[in-house]
Structures are given as C-alpha cells and as structure tokens.
C-alpha cells in the first residue's frame, strides 16, 4: 500500500462536503411565539404587572379616606391602619416580607424608638411600614410628588431637606414627634444605592437621637426572586437610585414573581450608651452593614448584639 505524505496543516482542513445545500431545520411548533419557548420573554408577565398596579392603585384610593378620618381621631388606630395599609400593599404587588428579630416597640416602656435602616429602594417604605409601628423621616422632595405626598402626609412623615443650614430645625421636628410618643424610621445613609452595599451613616442626621429611649439598627435585604436566592445580578431590579422613575421601576418589578424581603432587627440600645452621635452613627452603621452582608450571602441571620459602651470595655 502506498503511503502519501501530507503536511500537518492538511489534517486540519475540512473535507469537501458532499451536500451542496446546508441543512435547514424548522421550528417544532408553528409560530414565532410558540417556537421561541427557550428564549427570553421581554413581554412576559404583562398581565401580572397590570393586575398588580391596578390593585395597588385601587387599594390606595380606598385607604386614603379611611386614614384621613383616623388621622383626626385620638388613639393609635391611625398607626395600626397605616401598618395594615403597607403590609397589604406588599402582598398586592407580590412581595413577601420575612422578619427576623423583635421590634423594640413591642415594649411600651421602650417607646419612642429610633429605627436606623439601610436604604436601597422606595420599596423600603412599604416593607418597613408594614412591619414597624413607626413613621418615616423622608427627604423634602417627596412632599411634592403627586399622590405619594398625600400618602406620606397621612402616614405622619417627617420631611427634612438634609441641608446643613436646616439641620437644627429638622432635629427639632423629629424631637417633637418622639416627644408625642411617635417612633421614627430613619435612613442615615442619606440616599439610596444599588443594593449591593451599605453606605456610611451620616452623623448629621442623628441630631435628634437623644430624644429616643431606644435605638434599633435594622438590616433590610431583598433576598428572593422567582422563589430562588437573589444574587448580585438581581439586586438592581429591586434597587431604585440615580435618575430612575418609580413608574418604569414598578413595571419591571411587578412582572416578576417570587420576590421576598427580609428584615433583620438587631438588639436595641439606649442612645446615651455611646458618647456622641458620631460614634452612634459608626456603630449602628457597622451593625447594619454586617447584618445586610449575611443576608446578601443567603446565610441564616440572627440579630447582632448591641454595641458595648467604651467605658465598659476591659
């Protein structure tokens, strides 16, 4: 048998195809919508989103007159209904809420309580408002948003401009609310972010912390999407920051299912346990950041201990 010597490069060249025309495959099911069953669905969940948005709007329109009447009546009925409104709104938009820990407001002797939480989205108001008996401290721009300003006013929200010149007046407004027995929910980061980190707490926003009997750090993370653990790729779906508008953000979120938010309530402590508000901001920020990091890693989380006063450190 004759042996023909070939160059090594010839072995890498493809042989000549016997078929002159390339193979063409048809879709297994007729129609583009049926055939692309394994592709992305850019229009998926539209019916779910429309249903959730309509239900949320109708529930808000029903709740506004009820809360208006309760707003002018004595007692804590307006507080309980405000919490019921936020909790119901979370269920209507398909957001399940899990609470780990005990709110300090369960003890009447601990009121008023200043809750310090991380902030990544407008959803934080719904989640925390349905879990805690407290009103919010919000930026002044919210008071000019249509419909949202009415809901915020009925929720007894304290509006602050967060400017250096108005710090004293805003602290006095917060003290007035806490002097009346109202607990407050504050976002000391001063702004929202992409949900993948916790920004340093600003001590200038804690000028009224001395009016609270207890300070309780709170870690809030959106840790489920589609019933599965949320990863770094999923966090921008929940986060609301920069130039995002609520309408388009709500539309994208309302199309998805199986979302969950977890609230981790750490051990409360009296504000006088720490020497000044800078130390308070640093310690509360550390606790909130550590708790949020555990939740983002989808690990079992437990409330962290209260900071130890420096004078008691051995």
Could you please describe the fold and organization of this structure?
It is built from 9 helices and 8 strands. It is of the alpha/beta class. It has one domain: 3-Layer(aba) Sandwich (Glycerol-3-phosphate (1)-acyltransferase). Strand 6 (214-225) and strand 7 form a beta hairpin. It starts with 31 loop residues before the first helix and ends in an 18-residue tail after the last helix. Residues 29-40 have low confidence and may be disordered.
Short description:
The chain is 34% helix and 14% strand. With 314 residues, the protein is α/β, with parallel strands linked by helices. The protein has a single domain, classed as Glycerol-3-phosphate (1)-acyltransferase.
């Amino acid at each position: 048998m004759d042996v023909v010597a070939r160059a090594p490069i010839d072995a890498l060249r493809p042989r000549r195809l016997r078929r002159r025309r390339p193979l063409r495959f048809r879709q297994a099911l007729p129609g583009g919508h049926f055939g692309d069953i394994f592709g992305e669905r850019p229009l998926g969940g539209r019916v779910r989103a429309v249903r959730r948005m309509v239900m949320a709007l109708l529930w808000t329109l029903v709740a506004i007159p009820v809360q208006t009447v309760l707003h002018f009546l004595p007692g804590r009925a307006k507080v309980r209904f405000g919490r019921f409104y936020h909790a119901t709104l979370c269920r209507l938009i398909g957001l399940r809420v899990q609470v780990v820990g005990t709110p300090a407001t369960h003890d009447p002797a601990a009121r008023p309580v200043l809750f310090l939480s991380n902030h990544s989205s407008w959803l934080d108001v719904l989640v925390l408002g349905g879990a805690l008996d407290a009103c919010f401290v919000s930026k002044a721009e919210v008071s000019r948003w249509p419909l949202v300003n009415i809901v915020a006013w009925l929720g007894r929200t304290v509006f602050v401009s967060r400017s250096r010149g108005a710090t004293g007046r805003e602290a006095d407004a917060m003290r007035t609310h806490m002097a009346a027995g109202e607990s407050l929910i504050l976002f000391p980061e001063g702004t929202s972010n992409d949900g993948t980190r916790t920004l340093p707490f600003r001590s200038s926003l804690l000028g009224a912390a001395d009016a609270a009997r207890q300070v309780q750090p709170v870690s809030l993370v959106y840790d489920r999407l589609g019933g599965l653990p949320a990863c770094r790729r999923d966090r921008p779906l929940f986060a609301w920051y920069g130039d995002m508008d609520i309408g388009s953000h709500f539309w994208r979120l309302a199309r998805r299912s199986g979302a969950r938010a977890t609230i981790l309530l750490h051990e409360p402590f009296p504000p006088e346990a720490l020497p000044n508000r800078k130390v308070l901001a640093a310690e509360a920020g550390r606790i909130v950041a550590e708790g949020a990091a555990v939740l983002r890693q989808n690990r079992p989380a437990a409330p962290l201990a209260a900071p130890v006063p420096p004078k008691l450190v051995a």
